[in-house]
Amino acid sequence: MEKGLIKKSKRQAIIVLSWLAVALCMGLVFFFSSQSGGESAETSMRIVRILTEFLEKHFSQLFVRKLAHFSEFCALSFLMYNAFFRTRIKKRLSPFLPVVLSAAYAASDEIHQYFVPGRVCSIADVGIDTAGVLLGAVVFYLVARLCIRLVTNKKRSDGDKADSRDGNEPQDKHGIDVP
Predict the structure, then answer these.
(1) Residues 6+ apart with CB under 8 A from 109
(2) How open is the CA angle 169-170-173, to the nearest 5 degrees?
């Protein structure tokens, strides 16, 4: 019974942390969108300088800004999928709801930027953000499938080991060898 409570508490903590990660990502998007045009350009140029030094190539500010849009919403989508997966939302909704919510947040982010001095509302940015959302969804799907496959293979492997036992080794009530 005690192990069951610990397992349930751990699962609940993971769910809370998953949703906190989503909220943090959304907060970062809102923070960066609240920067004035000048502040946003300055932040982008700092990133350009770092990337230029690191890769020894020239990146345009426009490229970095669009890459930032794409990356923010790729991360948001990935985190939202993780939170939905951890929360075990109905499977009928799970594949679509994170994409719809992330894309809706992208649209609302552009509307928010309309009211920030020096920023503009851009349909093209909503498209870039939504492309990031879709990539985040695909990456989460692939990572989740890989993890499920690894866990399934490990369970099968552990089952094969249990089948090959001679039955003389002591085990606890969960079938784990006791030294």
Answers:
(1) 29, 30, 33, 129
(2) 135
**Count of other CB atoms within 10 angstroms of residue 52:** 14
Distance CA 95, CA 86 (A): 13
Inter-residue contact 55 to 69 (CB < 8 Å): no
Neighbours of 58 (CB within 10 A): 9
Residue 41 amino acid letter: A
Distance of CA 122 to the CA centre of its chain: 24
Q: How far apart are CA 99 and CA 54, in angstroms?
A: 33
* Model confidence, pTM: 0.64
Q: Measured on CA atoms in the order 88, 127, 28, 74, is the torsion positive or negative?
A: positive
- The tens place of each residue's pLDDT in the chain, 179 residues long, gives 577 777 778 888 888 999 999 999 999 989 988 888 888 888 888 887 777 776 655 556 677 788 888 999 999 999 999 888 888 776 666 678 899 999 999 999 999 999 999 888 999 999 999 999 999 999 999 998 898 888 888 777 776 665 555 555 544 444 444 33
CB 69 within 8 A of CB 124: no
